[in-house]
Design brief:
- By secondary structure, the protein is α+β, with helices and mostly antiparallel strands.
- Helix content is 33%, strand content 31%.
- The strands form four sheets. Strands 1, 2, 4, 5, 6, 10, 14 and 17 form an eight-stranded antiparallel beta sheet that branches.
- β12 and β13 form a beta hairpin.
- α1 runs antiparallel to α3 and α5 runs antiparallel to α6.
- The longest helix is centred in the C-terminal third of the chain and has 20 residues.
- It starts with a strand and ends with a helix.
- The relative contact order is 0.19.
Length: 226
């Protein structure tokens, strides 16, 4: 499931993040790339222990916890601390697939990367190029969203970032381990949840709402790891 989640961060939160990122020190983005990805990765990244990365990352995690669409679609069990990258001057990231397992820095904790997330912190008019291209059975989908919006997609997807030919593309990226590891099952649960919400809104006392809610939770009970 490829899903756009609008306004994860407010305009004020985006401005706060951009100010903090302007004053931060950036390093070669290949520090978090695997052997294969490092051959095609050309960008800059904040160190994971950067005070700015931690501060903005905590803000993002707090916002995600309050975002009903994200919680319904991802059913998150663990979220990797958000990382931050910057592309400019022709930088790009060739076709790759994300590592299946990520180790938390400084902690004996690993995450299975079921879902990849990119949160845009620069507006589309600020840069040319820099589209996130995500491939699935229907072809390649080009994603370039307003600042504050986020896209989530299966971490098993092939994807790449096209060269940035003007300005700067600034994003946060991270991964989610879902309680339901199968993408198809998550998609069914998300659609069912949306349908229940619409039914409750349009017909708040309809008995089918209780029945369908029971089906939803019994499917989660059957499919969830936690």
């Amino acid at each position: 499931m490829l899903l756009r989640i609008p306004e994860v961060l407010t305009a004020e939160q985006v401005a706060f993040a951009r100010k903090a990122l302007e004053d931060a020190e950036w390093i070669d983005g290949r520090v978090t790339a695997g052997i294969q990805s490092a051959r095609t990765k050309d960008n800059m990244q904040l160190p994971e222990d950067s005070p700015a990365a931690r501060q903005i990352g905590e803000m993002i995690l707090s916002a995600l916890g309050k975002n009903a669409i994200f919680v319904s679609a991802a059913l998150p069990l663990r979220v990797f601390p958000p990382l931050f990258n910057r592309y400019r001057g022709g930088q790009s990231f060739g076709t790759h697939i994300d590592n299946a397992i990520r180790q938390f820095t400084g902690a004996p904790l690993r995450i299975r990367t079921d879902i990849s997330a990119t949160l845009f912190l620069a507006s589309p008019h600020e840069y040319d190029g820099g589209e996130l291209s995500i491939e699935d059975t229907f072809g390649a989908h080009q994603v370039k969203l307003p600042a504050g919006d986020m896209v989530i997609y299966p971490a098993s997807s092939l994807h790449y970032v096209t060269p940035v030919t003007r300005g700067e593309r600034i994003c946060s990226f991270f991964w989610i381990q879902s309680m339901v590891r199968d993408d198809g099952q998550r998609s069914l649960l998300f659609d069912l949840d949306l349908g229940i919400q619409r039914l409750n809104h349009d017909h708040p006392d309809h008995p089918s709402a209780v029945q369908l809610t029971g089906v939803y939770h019994n499917l989660v009970r059957r499919w969830a790891d936690a």
